[in-house]
Amino acid sequence: MKNIVHLLVPFMALALANAAFAGSDIAGAQKSLNGSQVKFSLGPNYFNATLTVAGPNGFYARSESGSGTVSIDLKSAGATGEGVYTYELTAASMETKTDPAPMNNGRGNGTDNPVSQIGVSTSGTFFAQNGLIIDRSNLTERSQ
After folding, report:
1. CA separation (Å) from 108 to 33, 100, 101?
2. Which residues contact 124 (CB under 8 A, 6 or more apart)?
3. Does the pTM of the predicted model rise above 0.85?
4. What is the torsional sign of CA 69, 90, 55, 77?
5. Which of 87, 67, 118 is nearest to 22 (CA)?
6. Where are the extended beta strands (E) located within 42-134?
7. What is d(CA 133, CA 75) in angstroms, rounded to the nearest whole number?
8. For residue range 26-77, what is the model confidence (pLDDT) as tens digits?
9. Distance CA 98, CA 86 (A)
C-alpha cells in the first residue's frame, strides 16, 4: 500500500500543477503566472488583498495590497527549489451582508443587525524551477 501512495503522489502533483492555469475564482480578478511573477490584478470591487505563496525547501512569501494589484516575485523572494508551489489570495469585497440579529443578552449594545463585508478567496498551484514559473499544461505525459 505504501508503494502505491509513493507512485500516486507525483501524478497528483502534476495534475494540480496543470490545473493552476485555470481561471480565477474571484470575479473580475486577472491572474498572471509569468516569468517569476505571481500577480493578481483585482477589480475595483475588492480591497485589502493578501497573496501568499509556499513551495519546496520551506519557501514562503507574503504580499499585501490595499487595492489594485498584489504580486510576488519568486526570484526576489528567494525561491530556488524545483517543484509544485501553492498560492492563496484573499480579499474583502465591496459586497456586504446583513448578519443575523444577535441574541439579546440584556446589555443593550444598540446593534440590531450588523452589516459586514463579504470575503473572497482563491487558491491553486503551479510548477516552478529556479524561481521561474513553467507552464506544464500543454505537455504530454512522455515529455514531462
Report:
1. 51, 16, 13
2. 16, 19, 20, 22, 86, 87
3. no
4. positive
5. 87
6. 46-55, 59-65, 69-73, 83-98, 115-129, 132-134
7. 10
8. 877 899 999 999 999 988 889 999 999 999 999 999 999 998 899 999 999 9
9. 33
